[in-house]
Design a protein that fits this description.
With 377 residues, the protein is mainly beta. It has one domain (3-370): Tubby Protein, Chain A (Alpha-Beta Barrel). It is 9% helix and 27% strand. It has helices at residues 32-38, 117-125, 281-286, 359-370, and strands at residues 3-4, 9-10, 82-84, 95-97, 104-105, 132-141, 151-159, 165-175, 183-187, 200-206, 212-217, 237-243, 256-261, 293-298, 302-304, 309-311, 326-329, 339-345, 348-353. This is 2967_t:CDS:1. Residues 1-19 have a biased composition (Polar residues). Belongs to the TUB family.
């Protein structure tokens, strides 16, 4: 396989070796190390200290619970699609997989300044149109003692009328300082501005080891005691990420499993509000209840003897080798890259994603890759 020795990325897709499955196989079996990790997946949801970060406003009232449609954004006019045969335990789920010729680059039809807060929230919480790929950049700024509390900004890449590349700010995230485990707050405010609790749209929580992460929309935490008069709806769980722990300490790429709620045949994401640990995505995953869950994995890189590195084909979108680089696929179609993420500079990363993900899900999954993992490295 021809590879760029400097970047550690494949340059010849036709010669790519067969990619083995990792984590959950088609039969629903788990790798031994992942079984060990499952016993430690519990995420504490009730240890937050009262602060302005916890002044949550439910964003569900601002999202379209059916298929996304808004004149502010480019609609997919493609009607042809090639369905992907889901795994046996996912037979109720459907992914409409467009062919490579049908995929186009997503473009916003309004500037960020022209969009209302309601339009922004609808966009970040709804799956992107089928057949379109969203190209993004994430910039990281390190703050706090020992650079333990970095901040991140997500921007959509675009091209102006004169052909110049531009970036449109979309979301920002920061790591909370008063939390027993990693806890990220995602907002529509820029980090340089005073973040309003009204503009918080999501959160990411990890377990102590950093091997499991839950992704939420804004809303009431069902695991915390709230006054009976509280009228906020319970938050939605939007996804979860589980990292296969590196128990033996072998060097190599991480193995990750991404859990999403399965899409309807109309391309909409059902509202999912678990109220007990067993009902959460990780709870269902732990108990082997995979029927209504879309189980995705990172595509396994291949070892290249010539460059002495693991390689993946990022089509030029990733230029620096990093343990953080990954591509997310479904086992039944390893060529349909639902999401990819990787480094291009020390503190700059590209993030591209497609249906069935929404911008908030993709950004949150990328945040989990940044986080330190005691048992994975």
């Amino acid at each position: 396989m021809s590879s760029d020795p400097q970047t550690g990325t494949s340059t010849n897709r036709a010669n790519t070796l067969q990619i083995p499955n990792v984590g959950i196989e088609e039969t629903g079996e788990l790798s031994p190390s992942l079984i060990t990790a499952i016993n430690h997946l519990s995420i504490e949801n009730s240890d937050d200290e009262s602060s302005s970060d916890d002044l949550e406003e439910d964003s569900d009232t601002l999202r379209n619970e059916s298929s996304y449609a808004n004149s502010a954004f480019d609609e997919s006019t493609t009607t042809l699609s090639q369905p992907v045969g889901p795994a046996e335990h996912l037979r109720a789920l459907i992914i409409n997989r467009p062919t490579a010729q049908m995929i186009t680059t997503f473009r916003l039809q309004k500037t960020r300044e022209e969009m209302t807060q309601e339009e922004v929230v609808k966009f970040v919480l709804n799956p992107v149109p089928q057949g379109q790929k969203v190209l993004c950049k994430i910039t990281r700024s390190k703050d706090g003692f020992g650079k333990l509390y970095p901040q991140y900004e997500l921007s959509i890449e675009d091209t102006s009328e004169n052909g110049e590349e531009t970036k449109i700010f979309l979301l920002a995230a920061r790591k909370r300082k008063k939390s027993k485990s990693s806890h990220y707050v995602i907002t529509t405010d820029r980090l340089s501005a005073n973040v309003s609790s009204d503009n918080i749209v999501g959160k990411v929580r990890s377990n102590f080891l950093g091997t499991a992460f839950a992704i939420y929309s804004n809303g009431r935490n069902p695991f915390k005691r709230e006054p009976e008069s509280t009228a906020l709806p319970i938050r939605e769980e939007l996804g979860a990420v589980v990292y296969d722990p590196n128990i033996l300490g072998f060097k190599g790429p991480r193995k990750m499993t991404v859990l999403l709620i399965g899409m309807t045949k109309h391309g909409a994401r059902p509202v999912f509000r678990p109220e007990t640990d067993a009902e959460t995505l990780i709870g269902k995953f732990k108990n082997g209840e995979h029927r209504d869950i879309l189980v995705l994995h990172n595509k396994s890189p291949q070892w290249n003897e010539e460059t002495q590195s693991y390689v993946l084909n990022f089509s030029g979108r990733v230029t620096l080798a990093s343990v953080k680089n990954f591509q997310i696929v479904h086992d039944n179609d390893l060529d349909y890259i639902i999401m990819q993420f990787g480094r291009v500079e020390e503190d700059t990363f590209t993030m591209d994603f497609m249906y069935p993900m929404c911008p908030l899900q993709a950004f949150a999954i990328a945040l989990t890759s940044f986080d330190a993992k005691l048992a994975c490295e």
